[in-house]
């Protein structure tokens, strides 16, 4: 499919609007959930169940919504529907917390599916732009969590900002979306399964590690802010560096380099912050490679990465987290994640980009 490339101005406008919207949506969802905790609307046990419910809906349903978004070719409708549901969750959380959590989960999933689809089509087959789009989400979660925990979440300004962003979505120029699906040939199916399984495994392990790592110093707000900044920077720069210097060199190299920093950073903030920066560099590459092997299905591709994230993170919601959070286990599974990513990316280059030297 021949693409009519957007101008740099249009690409920047899309990234600005969708990036800010991503932060706002994630921020409102986090603020709603932690405001419920702050106001003691439900018991601690019920609250934990609501957190699990939210994450399962927000991440687990993205693949389903992605299929629907691809079928109806309606990413902006998904984005706006997600914004509306997220806004409603903020309005009703005091009177109906469980419904609010459900709305927040559904809204988050719809927004991510639609906006993610668009980000993957701004500069097709490149990892830089999807990484820049995803990065602000971590900042939004941080701000929303702090506002909710401190009882400082003010509903109407947040909804007003969300409404303005929804209007801007229809003002900026949308990229030409590729919905031309290519059937997987019988002789390519094993390669497709192999690559998808390896990258999916790498994402799931990354999610598990991020969920079970324990940094006692995170109680310090200044260090937590810097740590969040490292996550944002890693995701934002990861795709840019990978496109420039090679996906395998940057993504696999950063993942391997992160190991000693994460292992020895438990009580050393600087080490942990560097480790988390390196650890998150892989995100844009794994997202883009799944999109590349599923042409014409950007929503579904984005949703599959979210499914891998929630499947990887689920053990962290239960008591087994304490057993898994030891250095030898983390070392072992990050090595497995790096090896899986290396094999998956190398096979992707050989099968889908035969004229490109495997880096």
Question: Strand-residue fraction?
Answer: under 5%
Radius of gyration: 20 Å
Termini gap: 26 Å
Given as residue ranges, the uncertain stretches (5+ residues, pLDDT < 50) are none
**CATH superfamily caption of the largest domain:** MFS general substrate transporter like domains
Give me the number of helical elements.
Answer: 16
CATH class of the largest domain: Mainly Alpha
Give the strand tally: 0
Structural domains: how many: 2
Q: What are the secondary-structure elements, in order, as H or E?
A: HHHHHHHHHHHHHHHH
Q: What is the CATH topology of the largest domain?
A: Growth Hormone, Chain: A
Main sheet overview = none
Shape: globular
CATH architecture of the largest domain: Up-down Bundle
Helix content: over 70%
- Based on secondary structure, the structural category is mainly alpha
**Rounded average pLDDT:** 93
Structure summarized in a few sentences:
The chain is mainly α and 359 residues long.
Task: List descriptors.
single chain, 359 residues, mainly alpha, Growth Hormone, Chain: A, 2 domains, 78% helix
């Amino acid at each position: 499919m021949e693409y009519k490339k957007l101008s740099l101005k249009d690409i920047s406008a899309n990234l600005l609007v969708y990036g800010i919207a991503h932060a706002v949506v994630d921020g409102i969802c986090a603020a709603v959930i932690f405001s419920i905790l702050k106001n003691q609307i439900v018991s601690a046990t019920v609250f934990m169940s609501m957190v699990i419910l939210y994450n399962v809906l927000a991440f687990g349903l993205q693949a389903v919504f992605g299929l629907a978004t691809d079928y109806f070719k309606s990413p902006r409708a998904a984005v706006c529907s997600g914004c509306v549901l997220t806004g409603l969750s903020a309005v009703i959380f005091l009177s109906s917390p469980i419904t609010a959590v459900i709305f927040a989960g559904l809204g988050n999933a719809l927004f991510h599916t639609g906006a993610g689809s668009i980000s993957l089509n701004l500069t097709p087959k490149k990892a830089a732009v999807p990484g820049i789009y995803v990065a602000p989400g971590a900042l939004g979660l941080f701000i929303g969590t702090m506002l909710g925990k401190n009882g400082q979440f003010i509903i109407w300004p947040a909804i007003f900002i969300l409404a303005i962003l929804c209007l801007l979505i229809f003002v900026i120029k949308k990229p030409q979306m590729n919905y031309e699906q290519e059937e997987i040939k019988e002789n390519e199916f094993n390669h497709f399964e192999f690559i998808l399984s390896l990258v999916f495994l790498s994402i799931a392990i990354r999610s598990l590690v991020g969920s079970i790592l324990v940094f006692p110093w995170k109680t310090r707000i200044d260090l937590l802010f810097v740590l969040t900044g490292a996550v944002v920077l890693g995701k934002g720069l990861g795709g840019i560096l990978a496109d420039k210097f090679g996906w395998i060199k940057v993504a696999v190299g950063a993942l391997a380099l992160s190991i000693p920093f994460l292992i020895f950073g438990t009580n050393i903030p600087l080490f942990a912050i560097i480790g988390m920066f390196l650890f998150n560099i892989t995100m844009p590459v794994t997202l883009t490679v799944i999109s590349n092997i599923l042409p014409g299905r950007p929503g579904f591709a984005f949703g599959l990465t979210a499914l891998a994230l929630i499947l990887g993170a689920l053990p962290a919601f239960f008591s087994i987290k304490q057993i898994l959070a030891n250095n030898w286990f983390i070392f072992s599974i990050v090595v497995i994640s790096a090896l899986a990513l290396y094999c998956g990316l190398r096979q992707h280059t050989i099968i889908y980009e035969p004229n490109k030297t495997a880096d």
